[in-house]
């Protein structure tokens, strides 16, 4: 009997394609945290 042909491996998921859907949520949060930290530094130095 002939050997069955093995299935081709599934293509690997690109890291960039995994991150892109989350960018609209993460970007504003990171911006808010950065503004808070910069304001905290400015107030503490004043």
Features:
about 45 residues, mainly alpha, rod-shaped
Strand content: under 5%
Stretches where pLDDT falls below 50 for ≥5 residues?
Answer: none
Number of strands: 0
Structural class: mainly alpha
Report the average pLDDT across residues. 89
Order of helices and strands: HH
TL;DR of this structure?
The protein is mainly alpha-helical and 46 residues long.
Mind sketching the topology for me?
Layout: H1 15-19, H2 23-45
What does this structure look like?
The structure is a single chain. The termini are far apart. It is built from 2 helices and no strands. It has a domain of 26 residues. Helices cover 61% and strands 0% of the residues. The protein is mainly alpha-helical.
């Amino acid at each position: 009997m002939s050997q069955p042909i093995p299935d081709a491996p599934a293509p690997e998921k690109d890291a960039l394609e995994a991150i892109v859907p989350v960018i609209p949520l993460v970007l504003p949060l990171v911006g808010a945290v950065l503004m808070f930290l910069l304001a905290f530094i400015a107030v503490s130095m004043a």
